[in-house]
């Protein structure tokens, strides 16, 4: 973890083991902080002093875990006094402890300072990523992270009076430094000489080498009050800044959502001052991350700066500067952060390792800093979590055992915040409670949007793994892996990059760009720290990164697969399916990517009418999904060139393609929307002949250029949806109208009549009409993703079909009970009936497929009024005679088909009402009241009514729906990097407790009482008197799982 130098070898004699009794102190404030403590048996408890002088229990350390702060290493290497100030360590129970003296680090550093640059960078990276980011981004702390000023002699005598205004602190008027222009060469030369002297002192450079090392590497800047020197979140013009004269201040922007637009409030929070002879910018240089703070001039100032290229050269010549820069960062952070750093854990997980398992005690929440996690329960995938997600919060609040197991899909870093630490922070800063309530609200919002099955029974999805429902949500990294050398991978990546850039800031990386950026030797090592750290920094700066793999199983390909949240395997559709050994070779090369979701992308030439042979690619494979993409002729212009230069392809796309507007109806745009969670789904409901309205709605959508990325339906909707999915750009009206004409034939129906054992019709005639439309087409060979709903009366469940015979499952979805016999599933023999009995408008199922917005078209039957009351018996002959009699008053009596349609509607009434109210759904209901279920001869009339309705509703949708607007105008959307404060955590936990109840528990400030240290949201007395050596935390022992790795000095 720390990657200590190879010349450092820990001496066994520097380790001491000892026993401690329950309640006995091991470390107290004032003791030397120069040792690492490891629990060999038993358990220890970490305490931090509260403002009131009482010790608060914040963390339990179990067997195999350690007590240590990486920040202490900097003090040890600097040979500064390092003592515990607020932290103490007690025995939670009778324990045996190993104590490692790490003072030897100092000798190793003196012998080989260049070997310590990387460990120093890791210490600062952990400080930024784990401690500071977690406290600021998720708990809302800003000015609490830094001291107001560094306590040293040079500033104490010159300390300026300060006045606090709200969130800001300003220097008192009349005491601000005044700056005059440097008119003479001598004055400028003196300032530069002084800057060189100050930099040499700050960086620990001997005076006799200062001129040699700093010559031509320092630039001077004169800034006015309130000038911005470094923008928060910026990674441009990175520099180390030293104040020659004047004062700077560090601030952080307040996100808009955190302020009231009607109030005149501060837009930034003050954190600390930077006075004369002090440096700022070191954290950004050492971590290679965007600036955590905004640096502004608090008064007119003269600054000396060393820019990043000069810093890197200076570091190579004199590596000792890394330690002094790190020390300038560490001594600025507040005692609160130094104490908390002992309690926040940095959890590193390889693929397949669990952060926690079902049934374990809920004692911590986790923040995903990088990587990807997957929640599973009884082998069923519940959800995936990407960077920025908060895991396990609801269970901690409810004080219930873990309800699922969360595993790492790829190498992941998490920050673990214990329950006790969370309570301590709330006591120190009660405003944190409001931030936590906001996070809780985001949990519930996410839970609402993800609870798309409306509390119904679990879906049975054929031909697709359970994790494929939400396997490509919240993606930050995508690896593109060519299946063979005939795949135009570079043009494909450029096309996808162009489509993705419409709504996200995207970075494309290949082995060529990496070597150009970091040098040709960066790929020599498979786990090179410089490469990994640089890639992680790019993931912080860009919402989405495309990793373009090499054709062969190279070191770069391995790194791409290891970094990926999802892998796109790109193949030529006309080629033979992949040998299973292809993927196995890559999986053997990188075992960590076995659990990563893999999508198959089949490329087709422009002259291909319809995909074919997809099943052969998918059977027995690792793929969780597939997509068909047409290649434009421009992608094939480099065919036949053996050694294609990446620069040639990029030059063409930059000049000819990237300047063009994005075609939102292209296959690449569809793939981009699916990958980024922006897909539009169209759901078509059942309703017999009324389904002709679906065709008119499709026509209205096409004429208004609204793309359809996924389509699905029930009964008649499954038929119309299948026709569209097979040929989205084909003449749908002609195909459907021909089928309606055949269905209106009474002679055909008469020939299909049979003895009504299971149904009135044999189904042969009806089967023929559908088979004539779909032939032997498979659902996998449809151009766009498609599903249909059936009712499985064998297992009494709803079935969602996404693969298999298109004819078979459309026929099953349209099988009205009593009219047609149930279809026997060709796979398992289950009896399938019309899907309208379980879900006549499956907008919820569509949402579960990962779409952002669903358009649902309802053509089902509704309430019937003025029905004739015929009592408890009815003669069909009597009804027929009444209808034949021209003088008889017409009676409104439901026919068999109408009863079946009403039955489907009644079965789904509750679900339909929830769909109407769903925020993700646009509900459309064309005029269907006058149309009978079997009136197929009215196709043209129904089409005309539906088209007029559709054009009106679709235009209104475009004007009012922001999601649709963004998709229709992707080039106008302003895309920026993800801000530090932009948090969108997700969760899949139960809603057993109301939001109000959970918020009340979460925001409650723990009481401070003696002899108590229970740390949960039900018993909130967590502090004890520091003088009470007998009081120990009476807390239920957690399981012996080992999540946070032991501090490694390898």
What's the quick description here?
The protein is an alpha+beta fold. The protein folds into 5 domains: 6-111, Jelly Rolls (Sandwich); 188-258 and 266-337, Jelly Rolls, CATH 2.60.120.10; 343-449, Jelly Rolls (Sandwich); 477-673, Rossmann fold (3-Layer(aba) Sandwich); 679-864 and 892-967, Cytosolic phospholipase A2 catalytic domain. The strands form 9 sheets. Strands 27, 34, 35, 36, 37, 38, 39, 40 and 41 form a 9-stranded mixed sheet that branches. A 6-stranded parallel sheet has the order 29-30-28-31-32-33, with helices on both faces. The protein has a 5-stranded antiparallel sheet with strand order 2-7-4-5-42, covered by helices on one side.
Q: Round the Cα radius of gyration to an integer and report it.
A: 34 Å
- The geometry reads as elongated
Strand content range: 15-25%
Residue windows where pLDDT falls under 50 for at least 5 positions: 152-169, 172-183, 257-264, 448-461, 463-470, 973-993, 1009-1022, 1025-1050
Any idea of the CATH class of the largest domain?
Alpha Beta
Count structural domains. Answer: 5
- Helix count from the secondary structure assignment: 34
CATH topology of the largest domain: Cytosolic phospholipase A2 catalytic domain
Structure description:
This is Swiss cheese. The protein is of the alpha+beta class and 1050 residues long. It has five domains: 6-111, Sandwich (Jelly Rolls); 188-258 and 266-337, Jelly Rolls (Sandwich); 343-449, Sandwich (Jelly Rolls); 477-673, Rossmann fold (3-Layer(aba) Sandwich); 679-864 and 892-967, Cytosolic phospholipase A2 catalytic domain, CATH 3.40.1090.10. It has 34 helices and 42 strands. The strands form nine sheets. Strands 27, 34, 35, 36, 37, 38, 39, 40 and 41 form a nine-stranded mixed beta sheet that branches. α32 crosses α33 (962-968). It starts with 14 loop residues before the first strand and ends in a 25-residue tail after the last strand. The model is unreliable at 152-169, 172-183, 257-264, 448-461, 463-470, 973-993, 1009-1022 and 1025-1050 (pLDDT under 50).
């Amino acid at each position: 973890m720390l990657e200590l130098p190879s010349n450092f070898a820990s001496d066994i004699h520097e380790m001491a083991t000892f026993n401690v009794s329950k309640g006995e102190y091991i470390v107290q404030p004032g003791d030397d902080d120069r040792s690492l403590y490891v629990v060999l048996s038993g358990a220890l408890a970490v305490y931090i002093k509260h403002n009131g002088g009482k010790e608060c229990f914040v963390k339990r350390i179990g067997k195999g875990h350690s007590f240590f702060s990486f920040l202490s290493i900097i003090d040890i290497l600097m040979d500064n006094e390092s003592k515990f100030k607020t932290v103490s360590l007690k025995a939670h129970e009778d324990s045996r402890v190993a104590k490692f003296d790490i003072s030897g680090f100092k000798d190793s550093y003196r012998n080989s300072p260049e070997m310590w640059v990387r460990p120093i960078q890791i210490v600062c990276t952990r400080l930024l990523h784990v401690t500071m980011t977690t406290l600021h981004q998720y708990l809302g702390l800003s000015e609490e992270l830094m001291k107001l000023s560094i306590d040293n002699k040079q500033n104490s005598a010159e300390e300026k009076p300060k006045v606090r205004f709200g969130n800001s602190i300003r220097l008192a008027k009349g005491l601000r430094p005044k700056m005059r222009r440097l008119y003479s060469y001598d004055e400028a030369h003196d300032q530069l000489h002084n800057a060189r002297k100050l930099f040499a002192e700050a960086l620990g450079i001997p005076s006799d080498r200062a001129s040699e090392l700093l010559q031509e590497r320092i630039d001077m800047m004169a800034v006015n009050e309130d000038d911005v020197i470094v923008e928060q979140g910026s990674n441009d013009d990175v520099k180390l800044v030293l104040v020659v004269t004047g004062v700077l201040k560090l601030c952080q922007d307040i996100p808009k959502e955190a302020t009231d637009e009607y109030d005149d409030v501060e837009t930034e929070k003050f954190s600390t001052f930077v006075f004369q002879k002090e440096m700022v910018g070191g954290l950004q240089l050492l971590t290679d991350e965007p600036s955590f703070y905004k640096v502004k001039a608090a008064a007119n100032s003269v600054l000396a700066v060393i820019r990043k290229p000069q810093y890197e050269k200076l570091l190579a010549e004199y590596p000792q500067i890394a330690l002094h820069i790190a020390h300038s960062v560490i001594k600025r952070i507040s005692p609160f952060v130094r104490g908390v750093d002992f309690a926040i854990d940095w959890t590193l997980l390889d693929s397949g390792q669990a952060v926690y398992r079902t049934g374990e005690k809920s004692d911590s929440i986790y923040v995903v800093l990088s990587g990807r996690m997957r929640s599973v329960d009884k082998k069923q995938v519940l959800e995936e979590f990407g960077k920025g997600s908060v895991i396990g919060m609801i269970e901690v609040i409810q004080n219930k055992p873990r309800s699922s197991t969360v595993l790492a899909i790829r190498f992941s870093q998490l920050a673990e915040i214990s329950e006790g630490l969370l309570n301590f922070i709330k006591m120190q800063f009660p405003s944190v409670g409001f931030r936590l309530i906001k996070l809780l609200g985001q949990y519930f919002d996410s839970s609402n949007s993800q609870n798309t099955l409306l509390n119904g029974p679990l879906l049975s999805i054929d031909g697709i793994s359970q994790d494929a429902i939400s396997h490509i949500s919240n993606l930050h990294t995508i690896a593109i892996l060519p299946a063979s050398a005939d795949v135009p991978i570079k043009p494909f990546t450029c096309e996808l990059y162009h489509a993705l850039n419409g709504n996200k800031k995207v970075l494309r990386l290949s082995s060529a760009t990496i070597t150009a950026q970091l040098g040709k030797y960066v790929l020599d090592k498979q786990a090179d720290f410089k490469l990994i750290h640089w890639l992680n920094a790019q993931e912080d700066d860009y919402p989405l990164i495309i990793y373009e793999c090499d054709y062969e199983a190279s070191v770069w390909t391995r790194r791409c697969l290891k970094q990926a949240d999802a892998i796109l395997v790109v193949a030529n559709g006309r080629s033979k399916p992949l040998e299973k050994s292809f993927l196995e070779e890559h999986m053997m090369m990188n075992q960590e990517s076995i659990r990563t979701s893999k999508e198959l992308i089949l490329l087709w030439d422009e002259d291909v009418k319809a995909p074919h042979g997809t099943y052969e690619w998918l059977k027995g494979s690792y793929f969780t999904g597939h997509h068909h993409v047409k290649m434009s002729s421009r992608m094939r212009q480099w065919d036949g060139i053996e050694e294609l230069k990446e620069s040639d392809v990029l030059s063409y796309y930059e000049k000819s393609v990237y300047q063009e507007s994005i075609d939102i109806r292209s296959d690449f745009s569809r793939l981009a929307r699916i990958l980024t969670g922006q897909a539009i789904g169209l759901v078509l409901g059942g309703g017999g002949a009324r389904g002709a309205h679906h065709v008119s709605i499709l026509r209205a959508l096409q004429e208004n250029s609204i793309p359809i990325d996924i389509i699905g339906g029930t009964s008649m909707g499954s038929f119309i949806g299948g026709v569209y999915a097979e040929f989205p750009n084909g003449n749908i009206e002609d195909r459907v109208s021909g089928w309606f004409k055949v269905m209106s034939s009474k002679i055909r129906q008469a020939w299909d009549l049979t003895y009504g054992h299971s149904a009135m019709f044999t189904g042969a005639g009806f089967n023929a009409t559908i088979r004539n439309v779909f032939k032997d087409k498979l659902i996998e060979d449809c151009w766009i993703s498609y599903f249909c709903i059936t009712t499985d009366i064998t297992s009494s469940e709803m079935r969602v079909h996404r693969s298999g015979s298109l004819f078979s499952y459309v026929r099953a979805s349209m099988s009205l009970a009593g009219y047609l016999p149930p279809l026997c599933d060709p796979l398992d023999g289950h009896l399938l009936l019309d899907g309208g009995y379980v879900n006549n408008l499956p907008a919820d199922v569509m949402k579960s497929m990962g779409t952002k917005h669903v358009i649902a078209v309802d053509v089902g039957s509704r309430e019937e009024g003025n029905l004739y009351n015929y009592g408890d018996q009815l003669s069909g002959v009597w009804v027929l005679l009444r209808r034949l009699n021209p003088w008889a008053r017409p009676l409104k009596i439901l026919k068999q088909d109408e009863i079946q349609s009403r039955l489907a509607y009644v079965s789904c009434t509750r679900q339909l009402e929830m769909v109407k109210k769903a925020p993700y759904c646009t509900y459309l209901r064309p005029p269907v009241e006058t149309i009978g279920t079997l009136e197929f001869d009215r196709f043209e009339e129904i089409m005309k009514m539906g088209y007029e309705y559709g054009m009106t509703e679709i235009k209104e949708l475009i004007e009012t729906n922001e999601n649709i607007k963004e998709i229709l105008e992707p080039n106008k959307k302003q895309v920026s990097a993800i801000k530090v404060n932009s948090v969108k955590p997700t969760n899949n936990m139960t809603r057993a407790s109301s939001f109000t109840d959970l918020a009340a528990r979460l925001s409650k400030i723990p009481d401070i009482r003696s002899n108590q240290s229970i740390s949960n949201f039900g018993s909130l007395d967590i502090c004890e008197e520091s003088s009470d050596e007998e009081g120990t935390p009476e807390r239920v022992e957690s399981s012996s799982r080992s999540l946070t790795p032991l501090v490694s000095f390898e």
